[in-house]
């Protein structure tokens, strides 16, 4: 019990230290916490260093994926409430449904692997959300579909890479299992974007 309290205290201290730096990017803060965990967990030898590099890739993938998943849900909810076109509404609902489920799986996996995830959007994703919700009417729908197309092109690539490069077999399996859903989202947005772009 005492040991877990000390571990919790040191994790909180690391988070506070990360927050005290100039950047308040939640993704970078979570990655710093994970690096500190990896440093303290690995022995200073060649095998340890190789393992640490693998852990760094895995934790970096999960922290970025967590922020991206939160963006899909948060932006989906806001667009759903204000969208004009039926295509943008339908797509936003799909994002909320699928990514809420995916985020829960990702959080459970990270907890199992002792990987700290961001609890708020990273700076990059926060900017995307702001850019979309600042628009009004059809322009918001069009900006949303544009960002979703770009986002899912990147996601398909990142998850496909992780399904090959991740060192942890469970993280590799999670990435591989998620790729078909992301490809389906990419296919949907590619088709629906045409109608939304044509809307007046």
TrEMBL record:
Signal peptide residues on this chain, from the entry's feature table: 1-19
UniProt cross-references to InterPro entries, sorted A to Z: DUF4142, Ferritin-like
A Pfam family of this chain: DUF4142
Gene3D superfamilies the record matches: 1.20.1260.10
Keywords of this entry: Signal
Domain DUF4142: from-to ranges: 58-191
Entry protein name: DUF4142 domain-containing protein
Origin species: Hymenobacter mellowenesis
């Amino acid at each position: 019990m005492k040991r877990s309290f000390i571990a919790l205290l040191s994790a909180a201290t690391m988070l506070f230290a990360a927050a005290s730096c100039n950047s308040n990017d939640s993704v970078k803060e979570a990655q710093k916490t994970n690096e500190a965990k990896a440093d303290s967990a690995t022995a200073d030898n060649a095998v340890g260093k190789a393992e640490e590099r693998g852990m760094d890739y895995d934790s970096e993938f999960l922290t970025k994926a967590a922020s991206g998943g939160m963006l899909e849900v948060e932006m989906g909810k806001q667009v759903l409430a204000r969208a004009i076109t039926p295509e943008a509404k339908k797509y936003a609902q799909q994002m909320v449904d699928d990514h809420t489920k995916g985020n829960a799986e990702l959080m459970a996996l990270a907890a199992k692997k002792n990987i700290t995830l961001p609890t708020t959007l990273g700076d990059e994703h926060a900017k995307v959300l702001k850019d979309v919700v600042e628009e009004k009417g059809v322009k918001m729908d069009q900006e949303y579909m544009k960002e979703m197309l770009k986002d899912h092109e990147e996601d398909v690539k990142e998850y496909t890479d992780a399904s090959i490069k991740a060192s942890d077999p469970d993280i590799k399996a999670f990435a591989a299992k998620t790729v078909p859903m992301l490809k389906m989202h990419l296919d949907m947005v590619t088709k629906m974007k045409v109608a939304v772009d044509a809307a007046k």
